[in-house]
From TrEMBL, chain A:
Coiled-coil region(s): none
Lineage of origin: Bacteria, Bacillati, Bacillota, Clostridia, Eubacteriales
Listed name of the protein: NADH dehydrogenase (Ubiquinone) 24 kDa subunit
Native species: Desulfotomaculum nigrificans (strain DSM 14880 / VKM B-2319 / CO-1-SRB)
Cofactor(s) needed for function: [2Fe-2S] cluster
Record-stated family: Belongs to the complex I 24 kDa subunit family.
Cofactor: record remark: Binds 1 [2Fe-2S] cluster.
Positions contributing to [2Fe-2S] cluster binding: 85, 90, 126, 130
Gene Ontology molecular function, alphabetical: 2 iron, 2 sulfur cluster binding; metal ion binding; oxidoreductase activity
PROSITE patterns hit by this protein: COMPLEX1_24K
Cited Pfam families: 2Fe-2S_thioredx (PF01257)
Automatic annotation (TrEMBL), chain B:
Protein name (record): NADH dehydrogenase (Quinone)
Uppermost EC category: oxidoreductase
Bilayer-crossing regions: none
Gene3D superfamilies noted in UniProt: 3.10.20.600, 6.10.250.1450, Glutaredoxin, NADH-ubiquinone oxidoreductase 51kDa subunit, NADH-ubiquinone oxidoreductase 51kDa subunit, iron-sulphur binding domain
Species this protein is from: Desulfotomaculum nigrificans (strain DSM 14880 / VKM B-2319 / CO-1-SRB)
Length: 159, 569
């Protein structure tokens, strides 16, 4: 089964180049999955099958790796990716309250995507910016010194 | 590039940074304005400050006399955005775009520094210059020698700071065994956490006979509360690249891998650029510096798994597999990446190598304590005034770090404990503030140096809740391969959840200790073996808090949501 193109063809060509580079080489598994995740925002089933075929890895191993690492998602993600840091510094400085407010505003538990796919909310372990804890990122943009009060104003910025 | 060309480049590059080093410059610049571009400062808007500074310099026509440089992290994350003005080294904190005009008109035009923007210590004193600041005075920077001083990705500025001098020395004057001997002499211990003697590790790999060997940098810094590796990878990538090249020469490897965690996109970006630049000038790749030594490095980006910081798991991940640890022996030095002998060291360990080669192992061994030589980078965070990145000689007391460098606990609250070593570590309570910090002393207190994360907590922190936090982390990050870690940490977490909800039973504390000890003894890798440490250590010093939760159904710090005292739940 071949993978259908569901998005930008240019980027799919890049994936094809990667498939060619790692043809029959199981060592490229994470590199290839990371590229698919980057292009599609998640790992569509067809691509997992294609990856298994191209790299010569059992599909069960592909699935094993895809579910092992936090960076990979088997489900489509929201348009905006909200990551709240739950490293120690953020934790002792009040990240749990921010988490509670985020979950309340979005109506989902962390680790999920809102039904309208506007937001995905994830808890991450240490972004390495402990000096400005608690830290939250939305689509990579950093919000330092977070408090529960700031949550709704920040979320309103993302449609 | 050959040896002579390298020295020529060093001489010219040196001229361009002399002003920053307190040496007499020969160029026309009167001031070097350094803007911190570390991740902490970027997150609180240093880009706007930088743009304002650039514009102000142009508006006042100072381009010929003022040089603007974006550097890596200066270490004072709490005070960002930070600007340093050389030659004197005035240190301006929390510089907003609207403050820039005053720095330009007063300082850069009239030579009068702006006192209100200088660092004000907690005791009210003003410490205007970097050299005045207690924060810096007690530090000794080896691994962080270039951070905050040079342009992050400029190989010229790196070379000006004695960059590639160590590699040149190794290739011209030293045999692989001599390189390994120098590292042994330094007494350097692995800075990733376990503290294994680095030189001994190098010797193991050197002694192996193989057609192919590998050198790896472990840049999977997942320990919550530690960010020194991030800083080195972002702010001084060449120091790691040069050291790995030296490592390759010393053990006979031609290929290296840099495993950097996905959560550090800037580190990946800077390291990638630095690799390309090093290749371009002939300091990486085939026939380095015109010799017959060839070495190259490839980047592998992590995919979000804490356990990949464990070396055997990391190697599995580079091979494209699930990052699950395997039993050792065989150690990676014998059978590592793709089954070949592999030299794997942490970022900070690598960052210490070049100064050791240039100044000698004996020099490095003059710092530190008898068994813990040299300097260690700590990340100070949590309830402390000066959060940031500090590098200190081992043997310094915890009090010096917390009170002098860290400026104490904010809000007039009392210091309660320092949690060191992250999820594998433990707490050091106030009674031990005068303990000299080294590997042995911290182990005796039931904690570890670990990767160097140091979280300060005050009286408003519940120690049971903190232990629960770490357990939640390890439980979440357990790879699940071995039962003690997969199920044992789950059971411990459940007990802690019970206790913090006020429904703990009296026998829970004993059950926790029993579980903790059996997990320590039976887990497969370091992650599982050390997972109970936060519990054991908080129980050791704060058992009364556990008992208050269980017996009185109260949280002394007022953190856990407990039913009111006296009520049955």
């Amino acid at each position: 089964m071949g993978a259908e193109c569901k998005c930008n063809c240019e980027q799919d060509k890049k994936l094809d180049a990667l498939f060619a580079q790692y043809k029959g080489n199981p060592n490229g598994l994470i590199v290839v999955l990371a590229a698919i995740q980057e292009v599609h925002g998640y790992l569509p089933k067809d691509y997992l099958i294609k990856t298994a075929e191209e790299l010569g890895v059992p599909l069960s191993d592909v699935y094993g790796v895809a579910t092992f690492y936090a960076a990979f998602s088997l489900r489509p993600r929201g348009r905006h990716s909200v990551n709240l840091c739950l490293g120690t510094a953020c934790y002792v400085k009040g990240a749990p309250e921010v988490q509670a407010m985020l979950e309340k505003e979005m109506g989902i538990k962390a680790g999920n995507t809102t039904e309208d796919r506007r937001f995905s909310l994830d808890l991450v372990r240490c972004l390495g910016a402990c000096g400005i804890a608690p830290v939250m990122t939305v689509n990579g943009e950093v919000y330092p010194r977070m408090t529960a009060e700031k949550v709704s104003e920040i979320l309103a910025k993302y449609e | 590039m050959n040896f002579a060309e390298l020295e020529l480049l060093r001489a010219t590059a040196r001229e361009s940074i002399k002003l920053r080093l307190g040496e007499e410059p020969s160029d026309n610049f009167k001031y070097h304005v350094l803007v911190c571009g570390g991740t902490g400062c970027i997150s609180i808007g240093c880009q706007n400050t930088l743009q304002a500074m650039q514009k102000a310099i142009e508006d006042h026509g100072l381009q010929e006399t003022v040089k603007l440089v974006v550097t890596g992290c200066m270490g004072t994350c709490e005070m960002g955005p930070v600007i340093t003005v050389f030659p004197e080294g005035y240190y301006y904190c929390r510089v907003k775009p609207e403050d820039v005009e005053e720095i330009v008109t007063s300082h850069l035009k009239e030579g009068k520094f702006v006192e209100r923007l200088c660092y004000h210590a907690a005791d009210g004193t003003v410490q205007p210059k970097k050299s005045d600041m207690v924060f810096f005075k007690k530090q000794k920077r080896n691994a962080l020698r270039n951070c905050g001083l040079i342009n992050q990705t400029s190989i010229e500025e790196y070379i000006a700071m004695d960059g590639y001098k160590a590699l040149a020395k190794v290739l011209q004057e030293m045999t692989p065994q001599q390189v390994v001997d120098e590292v042994k002499k330094s007494g350097l211990r692995g800075r990733g956490g376990a503290g294994f003697p680095t030189g001994m590790k190098w010797q193991f790999v050197l002694d192996q006979k193989a057609d192919q060997k590998y050198v790896v940098v472990n840049g999977d810094e997942g320990d919550p509360g530690a960010f020194m590796d991030r800083s080195v990878l972002e702010d001084d990538p060449y120091s790691v690249i040069e050291a790995m090249t030296i490592g390759g020469y010393a053990v006979g490897a031609s290929k290296g891998y840099a495993y950097i965690r996905l959560e550090y996109p800037r580190a990946i970006d800077h390291f990638t650029k630095a690799l390309a630049r090093a290749r371009e000038v002939g300091l990486l790749g085939n026939n380095i510096l015109g010799t017959d030594f060839s070495f190259d490095i490839e980047i592998r980006v992590g995919a979000g798994a804490f356990v990949c910081g464990e070396e055997t798991a990391l190697l599995a991940s580079i091979e494209g597999r699930r990052g699950e640890p395997r039993p050792r022996p065989p150690f990676p030095a014998v059978s590592g990446l793709f089954g070949k002998p592999t030299l794997i060291n942490n970022v900070e360990t690598w960052a210490n190598i070049c100064p050791i080669i240039i100044k000698g192992g004996d020099w490095y061994a003059t710092m530190g304590t008898e068994k813990s030589k040299g300097t260690k980078v700590f990340t100070l965070a949590g309830k402390i005034n000066n959060t940031g990145l500090v590098e200190v000689p081992l043997g310094i007391t915890l009090r010096e770090i917390v009170e002098d460098i860290g400026g104490g606990v904010p809000g007039g609250k009392a210091f309660k404990a320092a949690q060191t070593g992250g999820p594998s570590g433990g707490c050091i309570p106030a009674a031990y503030l005068d303990t000299p910090i080294d590997y042995e002393n911290l182990a005796a207190l039931g904690s570890i140096v670990g990767s160097g994360g140091m979280i300060i907590v005050d009286e408003g922190t519940c120690m049971v809740d903190l232990a629960k936090f770490y357990l939640g982390f390890t439980q979440d990050e357990s790879c699940g391969k071995c039962t003690p870690c997969r199920i044992g940490t789950k059971r411990m977490l459940e007990i802690l959840e019970r206790i913090t909800k006020g429904v703990g039973k009296e026998e829970d504390i004993e059950l926790l200790i029993e579980l903790a000890n059996s997990i320590k003894a039976s887990a497969l890798c370091g992650l599982g073996q050390t997972a109970p440490n936060p519990i054991l250590s908080t129980l050791r010093y704060f058992r009364d808090e556990y008992e208050a939760h269980v017996k009185d159904k109260t949280c002394p710090a007022g953190v856990c949501k407990m039913p009111r005292k006296g009520l049955k739940s």
